[in-house]
């Protein structure tokens, strides 16, 4: 029986992660550490003897480069890869590019915490996690899930909040539960699904 495999991986550390900036739809590159995180993710998947039939990523280079490095580690450089902005990071609007500590000084600790960690309160001009999910999940159901259900082994390299939206759906988490879910940079999470798209097992390689 063919397995229904879905692997999610957040991009490796980016230059703006390192600087503690709200990144959103801006397009910084990976740091040297981010490159190493992606190589490690690829090596972990290779050691598990995992290969993929199709790959998805966002239109942002930090996710694309992470995926490219992972596929190089797997010897799958030519794999069909689909890029779509539906998988982009949450848009932080007016606070994009701000240092998180400076934002707290300007807007107050409580307000910044609400923008970062509430489910449905967006920063000015940006998206809440709820709005991000409303963008990500229809794309997942329409494009990605059918591939997985047809037994195409699928990898998605994306971002902390676009992946949170997917994990919320896959693991049937509440808004409160998903907000507490941390995703390490460059760490694969491996899902195996049944024929109805429900999770049979999950393995987070962060340990």
Automatic annotation (TrEMBL):
<feature type="binding site">
    <location>
        <begin position="89"/>
        <end position="92"/>
    </location>
    <ligand>
        <name>substrate</name>
    </ligand>
</feature>
<keyword id="KW-0324">Glycolysis</keyword>
<feature type="binding site">
    <location>
        <begin position="160"/>
        <end position="161"/>
    </location>
    <ligand>
        <name>substrate</name>
    </ligand>
</feature>
<feature type="binding site">
    <location>
        <position position="62"/>
    </location>
    <ligand>
        <name>substrate</name>
    </ligand>
</feature>
<feature type="binding site">
    <location>
        <begin position="10"/>
        <end position="17"/>
    </location>
    <ligand>
        <name>substrate</name>
    </ligand>
</feature>
<feature type="active site" description="Proton donor/acceptor">
    <location>
        <position position="89"/>
    </location>
</feature>
<comment type="subunit">
    <text>Homodimer.</text>
</comment>
<protein>
    <recommendedName>
        <fullName>2,3-bisphosphoglycerate-dependent phosphoglycerate mutase</fullName>
        <ecNumber>5.4.2.11</ecNumber>
    </recommendedName>
</protein>
<keyword id="KW-0312">Gluconeogenesis</keyword>
<feature type="active site" description="Tele-phosphohistidine intermediate">
    <location>
        <position position="11"/>
    </location>
</feature>
<feature type="site" description="Transition state stabilizer">
    <location>
        <position position="159"/>
    </location>
</feature>
<dbReference type="InterPro" id="IPR013078">
    <property type="entry name" value="His_Pase_superF_clade-1"/>
</dbReference>
<feature type="binding site">
    <location>
        <begin position="23"/>
        <end position="24"/>
    </location>
    <ligand>
        <name>substrate</name>
    </ligand>
</feature>
<dbReference type="InterPro" id="IPR029033">
    <property type="entry name" value="His_PPase_superfam"/>
</dbReference>
<dbReference type="GO" id="GO:0004619">
    <property type="term" value="F:phosphoglycerate mutase activity"/>
</dbReference>
<feature type="binding site">
    <location>
        <position position="100"/>
    </location>
    <ligand>
        <name>substrate</name>
    </ligand>
</feature>
<comment type="pathway">
    <text>Carbohydrate degradation; glycolysis; pyruvate from D-glyceraldehyde 3-phosphate: step 3/5.</text>
</comment>
<dbReference type="Pfam" id="PF00300">
    <property type="entry name" value="His_Phos_1"/>
</dbReference>
<keyword id="KW-0413">Isomerase</keyword>
<feature type="binding site">
    <location>
        <begin position="116"/>
        <end position="117"/>
    </location>
    <ligand>
        <name>substrate</name>
    </ligand>
</feature>
<dbReference type="InterPro" id="IPR005952">
    <property type="entry name" value="Phosphogly_mut1"/>
</dbReference>
<comment type="function">
    <text>Catalyzes the interconversion of 2-phosphoglycerate and 3-phosphoglycerate.</text>
</comment>
<dbReference type="InterPro" id="IPR001345">
    <property type="entry name" value="PG/BPGM_mutase_AS"/>
</dbReference>
<comment type="similarity">
    <text>Belongs to the phosphoglycerate mutase family. BPG-dependent PGAM subfamily.</text>
</comment>
């Amino acid at each position: 029986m063919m397995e229904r495999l879905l692997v999610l991986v957040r991009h490796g550390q980016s230059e703006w992660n390192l600087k503690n900036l709200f990144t959103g739809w801006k397009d910084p590159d990976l740091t040297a550490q981010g490159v190493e995180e992606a190589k490690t993710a690829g090596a972990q998947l290779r050691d598990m003897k995992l290969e993929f039939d199709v790959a998805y990523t966002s239109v942002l280079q930090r996710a694309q480069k992470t995926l490219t490095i992972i596929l190089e580690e797997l010897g799958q450089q030519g794999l069909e890869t689909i890029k779509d902005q539906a998988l982009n990071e949450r848009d932080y609007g007016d606070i994009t590019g701000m240092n998180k500590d400076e934002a707290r000084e300007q807007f107050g600790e409580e307000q910044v915490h609400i923008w970062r960690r509430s489910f449905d309160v967006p920063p000015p001009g940006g998206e809440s996690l709820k709005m991000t999910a409303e963008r990500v999940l229809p794309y997942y159901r329409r494009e990605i899930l059918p591939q997985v259900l047809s037994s195409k082994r699928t990898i998605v390299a994306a971002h902390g909040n676009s992946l949170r939206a997917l994990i919320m759906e896959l693991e049937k988490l509440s808004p409160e539960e998903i907000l507490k879910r941390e995703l390490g940079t460059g760490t694969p999470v491996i899902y195996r699904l049944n024929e109805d798209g429900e999770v049979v097992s999950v393995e987070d390689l962060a340990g």
